[in-house]
Structure formats: structure tokens, C-alpha cells
Amino acid sequence: MELSPDISLKRSAPALGTRCWIFPQPPFILGYEQPDRVWLSILPDEIGDGPSDISMYVADPLFDKEPYGFSGFPPYRGPRRRSFRLGPDRHFDSLDPRSRDYLGVHAYACIHFVLDVWRNYLARPMHWFFSDFYPRLEIVPFVRWDNAHAGFGFIELGCSEAAGEQSPYALNFDTIAHEIGHLITLSQTGLPGNLSRDADFFPFSEAISDSISLISFLHFDSAIDRLLRRTKGNLLLYNELNRFAETSPETQIRLATNFRRMSEVTSEAHDRSLPLLGAIFDTIIELYHRELVASGCADHRLLSVNLRDLTQDEFDRFRQTTAEAFRDRPLFFKLALIKARDSVGGAIGAALHRLDPDAMRLGDAALAIISAADWRAAAQLEENFTWREIIGSR
Description:
By secondary structure, the protein is α/β, with parallel strands linked by helices. It is built from nine helices and ten strands. Strand 3, helix 1 (102-122) and strand 4 (137-140) form a beta-alpha-beta unit.
């Protein structure tokens, strides 16, 4: 029997989308040194040099520039590095993903990947909130600045430094997804016009942007496989899923795994966002556990134990039984995590457009997410939001 050629690599199959390399985690993270080849939904013929398209474009400054907000706003009018030019097949996976020129391509690809994921969860059109002023998002892939931010018409990516080495945020999927998460949130809620003094829009936006990053990461099949193999199915262990914007193999900006309640946080937006983020992360993990129990991959007692109060003996027993089950039935673990991911992602996506950014409280956001969720996810979300003191007992 003669096998048919792989049509996905033929130039005659452009309707499949555009191939590119993406690092699901920064390449300094063990196990993620090599990028993944992924398909973007945008077609090669819709992409121009830069790369650029109808919704975004890369502007890579030739010389150092001040970040937007400190000096001016887009569009960038200064001299640029040589514009990336598309190859004969108009795909990106023939390029060296570690080259300086690839920074803009990688950022561009990551943004499209995140948008592809969240258009499914939003289930409604998404337009840039600034589209009346700027029709396209400007992507600045490198600014000599230890930060990254997205704003009115732009996303700018700096770099972190550890052990004398620079790590561009343009190769950090978490960072890019978080910043695009802010733009997705604003595209659905609208831009705040007159925030009330006690509004929680900024903590809410930080928590949702981290959640968008986390859930987007779980759309890399290879990343799910590596995550589950590394933890042997035990996602309570310290791992790449609960770390955000790693700046080195040992450090990160935030952790999704936290036990903060509203009575324990300050008014600073990132700190105040932690209970909402923690509740969302806990819900994904607990729904994952429910699926494992339902498929016979975990002891039913796992559902009756407060995971925040596990003793060391209980944790060790859970880790051993999980590892044994994962060795025998790894596919069930992957399917359980995907189902939990989609339940929570769908609830967040459906809730965003229901919220008033000017008067929003975290409790309002929590109730909107609960009401948008399926019944299993809704019950788990309500329990976690209550424990975090985001909503009261009902």
C-alpha cells in the first residue's frame, strides 16, 4: 500500500491556515527549549510583510525608544529594522525561531494564537476597543525595558535579565497572552469612562488576563502532554501551569496557586486580583479531579478533602495513586484537563460582555462567571469564590 503525501505541507492546501513556531513557555524552561509548530487560522495570503494583516502589524524600532506612555503613542514613525519579508511559501516555520528577526514574528503568532482560542470562548465578534482611532494593533517586539504592556493601539515587549542573560518577553507566551488578555477584556466590557471610587475593574482585569494566559497555554497539545508527564498527573505540584511570566527558570511574576482571601489583600491591583485568580485556578484543578474520579483514575475521597488542608501523608498518598493511574491511563488525564479548561474558559468568555467596567465589583464579576457556567463548573466556582470571600454564602 502506498501512503498518500502529507497534504498539510503542500502549497496547494492554503485553506488550512499558516504554519509557525511558538514557544509555549520561554525557551529557558526545562523541556521547552524547542518551539512547537502550530497552525494559525489566518491564511498565508492574508499576511503581508512585517508581518502584518488587517488587524495588526509589527513595528520593530531600529534604535532604542521610550515605551509608549512615557513618550508618545502609536503609530511609531521612527526608523525601523528591516521589515520581515515573507518567503515563497508564505509560512513562518522555515525561519530560525531564535533569530533576532523572529521576535516580531513570534509575538505576532502568539497574539493570533490567543485570539483564535478566545474567539471560541467569547462566541461573539471581537473588535479592538480602540478601533475607532487605530484600525490595527501595533506590535513593538523589543524595547530595552524590564516590562511589557498593552494599551490604546499597541503592545510593547521588553526583556528580563537573569544571570547576565537577557530574555525577551517577545519569546514569553505567558507575558504576551496576559497583555492581549487585557485587550480582549476591554473589547468585551468596553473602556471604563468614569470609574467609581470602589470599582474593581483593574484587579478584575489582572485576574482575567492571567486566566486568559493560563487557559491559552492549555491549548498547546504538547504542553499538556509535558505538563502531565512532568507532574505524573498531579497538578497540585509546583509547575509551569501555575507560574506566570517566568523571568528565569526559578522566578516568575505571579503564581496562580495561592491561598489569599479578600480580607488578606491590599488595594494594589495585582495583589487584589489574587483571590479571583486563585478561585479560577482552583476550579480548573477541582473539575479536573472530578473527571478523574468519574473515569476511575482517582479515589473518590479526593472530592471530599479540602485540598488547601491536605496533610503531608494525604498528599503523598494522592501523589502515589495519581502517578500509578497516570502510568496506565494517560489519555484520561489529558481529556479530563481539556474538559475542565473548556468549562472554565467558556464561562469566562460568556461573562465578559455582561459586566459594567465603571461600577464593577469582584463579586459582580464572580456572579456573572457563575451564571455563565455549566452546572458542574458553576457549583465549583461558587464554592471557591465563597471561600475566597469574593461573594457571600448563598
